[in-house]
Amino acid sequence: MYKKLVSIFSQYSGLSKSAYVIFFARIITNMGAFIWPLLTLILSRKIGYSASTIAIISLSIGVLYLPATVLGGKLADKYDRKKIIIIFDSLSVVFFISCAFIEPSNLMTVLFVLAGLFANMEGPAFEALIADATKPQEREKVYSLSYLGHNLGFIVGATVGGLLFEKYLSLAFIIDGLTTLSSTILIILFVNVLKTDDLKDDEKNEYENHAGNDVSSFDILKERKSILIQLLVFMLAAFIYDQWSFTLPLYMETIFLDKGAQYFGLLASFNGLIVILFTPVMTRILEKLNELPKIIIGLLLYSLSFLIIRNAVVYWVFFVMMFAFTIGEIINMLGSSPYISRRVPASHRGRINSYRNIGYFIGGIGGRVIMGWLIDTFSYATAFTVLGGIGVVSATIVYLNYKLDKKIFPKLYEGKIASEK
């Protein structure tokens, strides 16, 4: 047993120094991540919006964020990515902390919308920086470790956030902003970009070589069509995934009334606990499996998880649901996070990552609008059934795209095949 545990955690040894910095930065950030998991409850309980109104607000935010994300991606490919992160993160923190000094209102909504705007403009630069600072062969473990750090902090943050929600919401905004700023400083000071000359011949990936200045991001997508298809899948996956912070807390409030926020906070912490316990395990078990099969498994588990609570009224059933959902989340992350980084030229990472983020926005926002309508018009059971169906359709698309991806990126699969023989 001891040897197995050592083996599981030793897989994280020998990574790039930047991987460990990102790990600790993620812990710091998410120890103070109180607001975003409770955003739906803030809009409904504190400000008084209905489910449909929250969905409309989310749609409006998405429309605003789309061009901003594209701009963030272009800036990330044109200028120093660390400087982009500093500027946009600082602006985000200023608006976020400002929310602490006003009462819950329409103005508060505007301020944290602006905070989120700049945070999302920074997103493509941050994703590109992770790929720039790590070796192609270690990406799965780097993203796994980063995700582990995210949840080590989040398991504390979600529980504390649930406790602060009722009487100390202002303090939650302040702590959230300061921890974000601290982790940004850590990344800027200690995360270093790896140059091609720093890599050995067997560590290089030709699909990441810089493309010419006259090559647009659309040219890349046209040439590498499986990436374009996968961007659609990311959108559908976001449609499903985002419901854990929208439909789920609303459903729990409907069932458990004034204890809904507290129960949801505990459930979110359980999500973090499962990630901590099972991310290293799933990384080891699935290390020989290619990215797309992992995504298929993750999507199917998403579908199953929401079907579990289709007619649930007992609290413990939600923990069963969250266990299935979280295992799916882990496996999906292990596949989707390194997928684009290995298939896109380093010169175009910012722009392609911005398109992926746009897919996340459209899927997440669209999901809130559609789920809000389904809840108000039909029922939660109908909404959960729709989520299950979307998961199955998404997994089918990935299965078909798997064959195309092998034809376009054969050398990535040669490495996997060789390791399995």
Could you describe the 3D structure shown?
The chain has about 425 residues and is mainly alpha-helical. The chain is about 80% helix and about 0% strand. The protein is built from 17 helices and no strands. It has helices at about 1-10, 15-30, 40-45, 50-80, 80-100, 105-130, 140-165, 170-190, 215-225, 225-240, 245-255, 260-285, 290-310, 315-340, 350-375, 380-410, 410-420. Helix 2 (about 15-30) runs parallel beside helix 7 (about 140-165), helix 10 packs antiparallel against helix 16 (about 380-410) and helix 16 (about 380-410) packs across helix 17. The longest helix has 29 residues, at about 350-375.
Indicate the low-confidence ranges by residue numbers. Answer: 416-421
**Secondary-structure element pattern, one letter each:** HHHHHHHHHHHHHHHHH
* Strand coverage percent: under 5%
Q: Biggest sheet, in brief?
A: none
Alpha carbon gyration radius = 21 Å
What is the strand and helix layout of this fold?
Elements: H1 2-10, H2 17-31, H3 39-46, H4 51-78, H5 81-98, H6 106-132, H7 139-164, H8 169-190, H9 217-223, H10 225-241, H11 247-256, H12 260-285, H13 291-308, H14 315-341, H15 349-377, H16 380-408, H17 410-420
